[in-house]
Specification:
Elements (H helix, E strand, L loop, with lengths): L6 E6 L2 H9 L8 E4 L3 E4 L1 H4 L9 H7 L4 E3 L3 H16 L5 E5 L2 E5 L4 H4 L2 H16 L3 E6 L2 H11 L4 E3 L5 H6 L11 H9 L5 H6 L2 H8 L1 H11 L15 E12 L2 H21 L4 E10 L4 E12 L2 H18 L5 E12 L22 H21 L9 H4 L6 H7 L4
The structure holds a DNA duplex.
Length: 415
DNA sequence: TCTGGGGTCCTAGGACCC
DNA sequence: TCTGGGGTCCTAGGACCC
């Protein structure tokens, strides 16, 4: 029997911009951009001028002088994104959310209730439009990869169902950059081999792709080009890391610059780790220099941490050694902290450091206890009065926030 | 005139162990 | 003593995604 296409990929169109047009109908049909210094999202009217997400605001204005910048109703993005996902969950519990505005679903088990997958996709689109006022595109196919491509092809505000009988004909005419995992670098490497379409990739020998792109990426793309995608819907997956970063413009690579910034970043990251009882063992810092090159340093501890002070000190030490290794770099443009090798502590057990004293990789137990008490006090105050209620003194004020905290939170994965 | 902030996964070399 | 193979962990860098 012919296999059926039961995987859906649903993707809200130009999400932030659509929400702004929903909240202020006078913006409908006009080129708008969410953001200011940098474009966080652009409406389709703005995209027609070449405006793209991530683009500097100045550049966007050059491309489209009548572009309207809007501030960003971040709480509404979260609310409406959740609501759209919940519409999908009304059909099946097998939903894998991959970002605020995008999810996969497997409807194999609910067709007896709601009809064939194409009908379910239409119902989802209808309901999101009627109940939320937002356009959403849906792709339906036999695999996640193809469903995702189908939703891209369906945009804006469309539906594409890929019949398993003709899926390769559909897939092979499309350009390689529509594939998951093919970005600018891979695209140009493939182009050098004369591979522009997914069909051409499918005809390229596997060993050739592997030599060009590495064993993992090569084998993966070779399989995807034939629509062999073994991935299943994963309803909950835990985060592997948590981090925070801050662009600085151009600042001297000096202690008085990076210390307060790292304190602030450590505070953001560590309080998230504590809130979910997920301390981590590996601390990574990243420094970007003025020329946009960036360098990382990391340290893996014997015991996991989630204390702000501990994280901040380790990060500072890593940045010091990093800068010492690059004595010619006088200017930095970004600092980042990330914690990985996250562990899971259930219940009330937080990360009282258990290690022995004196060894570099083992946080001191006594110092750890004092900080644990201090962190708990900060967490409690914030739980009651909000994140801004307490912070690291002058630090909180000195950070120039190019992006509001509410926006940062939208991108945070559940730990 | 040089893209913000949150993530995932892969690679390659070296250390270390059996 | 020399040679060799395999596995795991750590570190640094890079491509990619939303």
């Amino acid at each position: 029997m012919e296999p059926t296409a039961t995987i859906l990929h649903a993707d809200l169109d130009a999400f932030y911009a659509s929400v702004e047009q929903l909240l202020d109908p006078s913006l409908c049909g006009k080129p708008i951009a969410v953001g200011g210094g940098v474009v966080l999202a652009a409406s389709y009217e703005a995209r027609a001028f070449g405006v793209r997400g991530g683009m500097p605001g100045r550049r966007a204005r050059e491309l489209c002088p009548q572009l309207i910048f809007v501030g960003g109703h971040f709480k509404d993005y979260q609310r409406l994104g959740d609501a759209a996902i919940n519409v999908i969950k009304d059909f099946t519990p097998l939903v894998e959310r991959i970002s605020i505005d995008e999810a996969f679903a497997d409807v194999a088990g609910c067709t007896h209730l709601f009809g064939p997958p194409a009908d379910i996709a239409m119902a989802i689109r209808r309901r999101v439009r009627a109940e939320l006022g937002l356009p959403i595109s849906v792709g339906v196919a036999r695999t996640k990869h193809l469903a995702k491509i189908a939703s891209q092809v369906a945009k804006p505000d469309g539906l594409v169902v890929v019949d398993p009988a003709t899926e390769l004909e559909f897939l092979h005419d499309l350009p390689v950059e529509l594939m998951w995992g093919v970005g600018p670098v891979t695209k140009s490497r493939l182009a050098e081999m004369g591979v522009l379409t997914i069909g051409q990739m499918a005809k390229t020998p596997g060993w050739s792709l592997e030599r060009l792109l590495g064993p993992a990426a090569g084998a993966k793309l070779a399989a995807l080009a034939w629509n062999r995608d073994p991935r299943e819907i994963k309803t909950h997956r835990r985060a592997q890391s948590a981090g925070a970063q801050s662009a600085l413009g151009k600042k001297p690579a000096e202690e008085w610059v990076f210390r307060p910034t790292l304190r602030h970043l450590a505070d953001r990251v560590a309080s998230r780790l504590r809130a979910k009882s997920r301390p981590g063992r590996t601390v990574t810092v990243r420094v970007r220099f003025a020329d946009l090159r960036s360098v990382t340093r990391s340290l893996t501890l014997d015991a996991p941490i989630s204390a702000t002070g501990m994280l901040a000190e380790i990060a500072e030490e890593l940045v010091r050694t990093l800068l010492a290794d690059h004595p010619d770099e006088k200017t930095i443009s970004l600092l980042a902290i990330s914690v990985s090798h996250l562990e899971t502590h259930t219940g009330l057990q937080l990360d009282l450091p258990l290690g022995l004293e004196d060894e570099k990789r083992r946080p001191s137990a006594k110092k750890g206890m004092a900080r644990w008490v201090a962190d708990r006090a900060v967490d409690t105050i914030r739980a009651r009065f909000g994140w801004q209620a307490v912070g690291y003194g002058s630090v909180a004020l000195e950070i120039s926030r190019s992006v509001p905290d509410e926006f940062r939170e939208l991108a945070e994965k559940d730990l």
